[in-house]
């Protein structure tokens, strides 16, 4: 992955916002947009759509798994 020091285009910003809304990760956004992970995180915060915290994401996934296991046990 090459790092580039160019300004964010409107199209790149829209694509980043769509990835955040879809539940994407900063790593995937960085690869897709050919930018650094921190650059994607900073730009998302500037746009007002920050990525979900990884700790919170992990807790939500574990809660969904626990609920699914509970439903299967019935």
Measured between the Cα atoms of the first and last residue, the distance is: 47 Å
The coarse silhouette is: elongated
Radius of gyration from the alpha-carbon trace, in angstroms: 16 Å
Poorly predicted tracts of residues = none
- Number of structural units classed as domains: 1
Following the backbone from N to C, one meets helices and strands in this order, namely HHHH
Number of helices: 4
Q: Please bin the fraction of helical residues.
A: 55-70%
Beta-strand portion reads: under 5%
Task: Write structural notes for this entry.
This protein is an all-alpha fold and 74 residues long. It has one domain. Helices cover 69% and strands 0% of the residues. Helix 1 (10-21) packs across helix 3 and helix 2 crosses helix 3 (37-47). The longest helix has 20 residues, at 54-73. The model has no long low-confidence stretch (mean pLDDT 90).
How do you describe this structure in short?
This protein has 74 residues and is mainly alpha-helical.
Task: For the structure shown, list the relevant keywords.
mainly alpha, 0% strand, elongated, single chain, 74 residues
């Amino acid at each position: 992955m090459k790092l580039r020091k160019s300004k964010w285009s409107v199209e790149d910003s829209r694509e980043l916002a769509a990835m955040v809304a879809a539940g994407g990760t900063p790593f995937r956004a960085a690869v897709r947009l050919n930018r650094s992970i921190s650059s994607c995180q900073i730009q998302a915060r500037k746009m007002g759509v920050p990525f979900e915290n990884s700790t919170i994401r992990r807790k939500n996934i574990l809660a969904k798994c626990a609920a699914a296991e509970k439903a299967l046990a019935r």
